[in-house]
Amino acid sequence: MSGEREAAPTPVTIEANFDGLVGPTHNYAGLAQGNNAAAKNAEMPSNPAAAALQGLAKMRALAKLGLAQGVLPPQERPHLPTLKQLGFEGREADVLKRVHRDAPQLLAAMSSASSMWTANAATVSPGADTADGRVHFTPANLATHLHRSIEPLVTGRALATIFRDDKHFVHHAALPSTPQMGDEGAANHTRLCSEHGAHGLELFVYGAAGDKDPKPDIHPARQNRAAGEAIARLHRLDPDYVHHAQQRPASIDAGVFHNDVIAVGNQHVLLHHEEAFVDTQSIRDWVKRRMSGRDPVFIEVGSSELSVDDAVSSYLFNSQLLSMPDGTMRLVCTHECRDDERVWATIQRIIDDPRNPIAGTEVFDLRQSMRNGGGPACLRLRVALDPAQRTAVNPKVWIDEALAARLEQWVRKYYRDRLILADLADPELLDASRCALDELTQILGLGSLYDFQR
To answer: Is residue 268 one of the residues assigned to a domain?
Structure first.
């Protein structure tokens, strides 16, 4: 680590966080291979109302701290169009009954509320990095899991509706849905910069590439290097400011299914575990060579201090690392981090070190999402916006006290406080979910976003 902690001037360009709103069918089906928490809690009863309210509490709190906080909508679930595409015909109530009887895992996949993990929604490059000065979005294809592979179409619609001005924003189609182009979005993408408005460095982290590269033995490598290379071309990035780094295969096997489970970066700070990457030194060398305006700060947590298993169970590195209005940074983490003595001691050591700008923590109860394998960073998509671009964003999606209160009321009106997998076949759940989403599109000014509205 290098550099003294000091307040920096407030940048003109801000980094906004757009959190995914947890959907009404939030459940624990254990669908995500390599996600330890999801597997451990499979078939437990869930509480969709609590999950959504916990996420909203985090959004509300960060907005109160003076941060730009937006919200992204959930998707329609159960997804009847896909079930019909797979041969389940007839009245919707009969389709749900039949698929629950004949293919219950398929019903679970088509009912997943996994779009809440908006770190997987897309990869975003700000205008400071792109050749045309516009913000570029590419929805993730999420090709390695069926329940997530049905998300990109509506994700793309939502992003194009919220970031709708083509003077400022460019929307690309998702990459071809194949493992050779497997793309899991911003969870495997880190931007480093001196200030959010400065030309940044874009780090793409992958789990698989050519046959000669090492591979995990147990779990799939979800992100392919070819996907990162394609996105860098689509976003018109300067190749000198792009780096592709491989995840450590053994860490993937230990439950690090995305890079954001073991590393987090913000501005000039990269916080990571010792076992995050195959070649950490090459990343450091590239950052030192290319970053201008501020010395980079590397915070490495060694295996002797905290094991990979501890990092995965606590989701320490899935914390949000945020730039505060006073120029310091704060780590947004979960109760699981505070409840683990070793993890909390690591956080306090980092905060107490004056050579980095991380000055404190914000701790949230996100147990409903953590039980499905995602922490604070999984729930948000980061978008750097200059003043003109921020003005061009759909204004109805910015969280303030009024919108937070209205969304909390909306959740209490439509969401159940207990859900088991058998409930996914209940036509009343489908009807309530559709009514909820129809009202949500009006609250957020999203228009006809869902298939059932067309």
So the answer is: yes
Q: pTM for this one? A: 0.94
What does the alpha-carbon distance between residue 254 and residue 274 come to, in Å, rounded to a whole number? Answer: 14
User: How wide is the angle at C-alpha 196 spanned by C-alphas 193 and 200, nearest 5°?
Assistant: 35
Is position 112 within any domain? Answer: yes
Active site residue ranges: 184, 258, 378
Residue 208 — pLDDT band, cuts 50, 70, 90?
Answer: confident
pLDDT in tens, 344-369: 999 999 999 999 999 999 999 998 88
**Phi, psi for residue 382 in degrees, rounded to 5:** -95, 135
Reported residue count of the chain is 454
Q: Could you give the 3-state DSSP secondary structure of residue 61?
A: helix
- Answer yes or no: is 2 within a domain: no
Kindly report, residue by residue over 144-176, the tens digit of the pLDDT. Answer: 999 999 999 999 999 999 999 999 999 999 999
CA distance 84 to 107: 12
Query: Is residue 322 helix, strand or coil?
Result: strand
pLDDT at 454: 35
Q: Does 206 fall in a domain?
A: yes
User: Which structural domain range is residue 404 located in?
Assistant: 14-453
Please say whether the beta carbons of 244 and 254 come within 8 A.
no
CB 329, CB 386: distance < 8 Å: no
Residues 6+ apart with CB under 8 A from 102: none
| CATH code for the domain in which residue 116 is found | 3.75.10.20
- Phi, psi at 365, each rounded to 5°: -90, 105
